[in-house]
Design goal:
The complex is a heterodimer of chains A (about 260) and B (about 240). Chain A has about 260 residues and is mainly α. Chain A is about 70% helix and about 5% strand. The longest helix of chain A is centred in the last third of the chain and has 32 residues, at about 185-215. Chain B is an all-alpha fold and about 240 residues long. Chain B has 8 helices and no strands. Classes of the chains: A mainly alpha (about 260), B mainly alpha (about 240).
């Protein structure tokens, strides 16, 4: 909780690559991964994106692996449900749990493997974006899109205040913890309530102050951003096209392959 | 209850985007009108969004050890700002959660916004309005609204998953119901206690706010002056 992914993005050398190129790579991977019908393409995408994040983006490998484990809980529950309850083909494994028959069928397993690989490739693409592109860079992209001004403004202000409040919440939590605020269940409930309400009141006051401060500096509903123009280098372009082409080729050739 | 990146297959993630986008646009339209009317509201909405994010990144104390549980905070937002604006705040917070905390994702953003930004807050808001009309105790209403808002979110997520992966591979009503039952039953282990916890924490939160700085709630038209006085047990 103390270290959010944005901190790593600020330190990454890939930060200085053209934003649109990175977004293109990420959304290409996301879309191709989710529309592939065999688990091979998603695994390939996952591997390439992880390699790019760790080798080019200099994310510590141990930290990266830990990150990949984080959403594993949701993935596993979902995949287990799919594996056990879908499919109608040949039974691979069956047993009884408390007199309730459970069976894994071949096509159910196939489907769950596919879902797992898709999620993995999606997570890797997401981590690539999150670990190499700080939010500040993405605001320039948001400005270029034609989303309503107030929406973008709101997202920028929220971004700013996340850090202010995260620090506040952490220090309150430390203070509560050393005073044994979380020593048993009842106390932790009341501590959480207190933490939330203090956070809310302080953020409210902060919002009032923010409005005054911005108004006195001639705020007219628009914050201007300095956008750095970054050209795409030939080597980056080449590497991206090789990746795109090989992924597409793999997608085409493994269309009808099933592993099991 | 974030559906993780890439979990939904092709027709379904587009469907949930198609369902969510009109609601978000309506929310933005409403927000624009509010901002044009009262310009000081934008910074306040911003701190509210940041508040939701921070609240959702805190771990709740949990009876079942090992389960990672965190409040959604959307119930509180719905009570304070209404469901339309909660939806707009919800989509921004969900993008940040995907980018900073790796909860959820871009492809499944539509489905997640639908369950956590639209259905949950709308449900919480309805219960809150009904409860206040029935003149129930304010804290009890907050507890019910947040808990039921959470459950609505979790049921919607199960519906989304069951529609995408019905039993028997072809979408029939029986297959959908069977698969829905299974997803709902498995997620119930964490979600049912979690919603009760969040309800309790939210009720406590409102209690402290009423005691310390009730004029905010009056200003937001969450509570009327007379109700606040009654809750604090003092006469003006």
């Amino acid at each position: 909780m103390t270290n959010i992914l944005d901190d790593y993005a600020l330190m990454s050398p890939l930060r200085h690559i053209n934003n649109w190129l990175k977004l293109a790579i990420v959304f290409f991977g996301l879309l191709l991964g989710v529309s592939s019908t065999s688990p091979i393409t998603p695994f390939f995408i996952a591997f390439c994106m992880s390699f790019a994040t760790v080798a080019f983006g200099r994310t510590p490998l141990k930290f990266y692996l830990k990150l990949l484990l984080a959403p594993a809980g949701f993935a596993l529950t979902g995949v287990i449900v799919i594996a056990f309850f879908s499919g109608s083909g040949q039974e691979l494994l069956s047993f009884e749990l408390a007199s309730y028959p459970l069976a894994i069928r071949a096509d159910g397993l196939e489907l769950s493997l596919l879902v797992l690989s898709r999620s993995l490739s999606g997570m890797c693409c997401l981590y690539f974006l999150a670990l190499t592109t700080p939010m500040i860079e993405l605001f320039a992209v948001l400005k270029a899109s034609r989303l309503p001004e107030s929406f973008i403004e709101l997202s920028m202000l929220i971004y700013r205040y996340i850090f202010v409040f995260l620090e506040m919440a952490l220090s309150i939590k430390y203070a509560q913890t050393v005073r044994l605020g979380y020593s048993n269940f009842r106390r932790s409930l009341s501590s959480m309530g207190m933490l939330g309400s203090t956070l809310f009141i302080r953020s409210w006051e902060q919002g009032d102050k923010l409005f005054l401060a911005m108004n006195s500096r001639c705020y007219d509903g628009k914050m201007t951003l300095f956008e750095v123009k970054r050209s795409v280098r030939a080597a980056e372009m080449l590497l991206t096209s090789v990746y795109f082409l090989s992924a597409l080729a793999l997608f085409y050739f493994t269309k009808n392959i099933s592993i099991i | 209850m974030h559906i993780m990146e890439g979990f939904l297959p092709t027709p379904w993630w587009q469907v949930w985007f198609a369902v969510s986008i009109p609601v978000i646009l309506y929310g933005i339209y409403k927000m624009n009108r509010l901002v044009n009317e009262k310009r000081e509201i934008l910074p306040l909405l911003a701190v509210a969004g940041a508040f939701i994010f921070v609240l959702s990144s805190l771990k709740l104390p949990s009876i079942i050890t090992g389960s990672c549980s965190h409040p959604t905070g959307t119930g509180i937002a719905a009570i304070m700002f209404g469901p339309a604006i909660s939806a707009v705040l919800g989509i921004i917070v969900l993008v940040y959660q995907a980018l900073f905390l790796a909860h959820g994702g871009f492809i499944t953003l539509g489905a997640n916004v639908f369950s956590m930004g639209i259905v949950g807050p709308a449900f919480a808001y309805l219960i809150y309005k009904a409860g206040m009309k029935a003149k129930l105790n304010f804290y009890a209403v907050v507890f019910l609204a947040t808990a039921f808002g959470d459950w609505a979110t979790y049921v919607t997520t199960s519906v989304e998953l069951a529609l995408a992966y019905p039993a028997g591979d072809v979408l029939t009503f029986a297959g959908f119901m069977s698969s829905f039952g299974k997803f709902a039953a498995i997620f119930a282990w964490t979600q049912v206690p979690l919603a009760i916890m969040e309800g309790a924490v939210s009720a406590l939160l409102f209690k402290y706010v009423v005691n310390i700085k009730s004029d905010i709630l009056v200003e937001l038209k969450v509570l009327e002056d007379a109700v606040v006085r009654k809750l604090r047990g003092t006469s003006a």
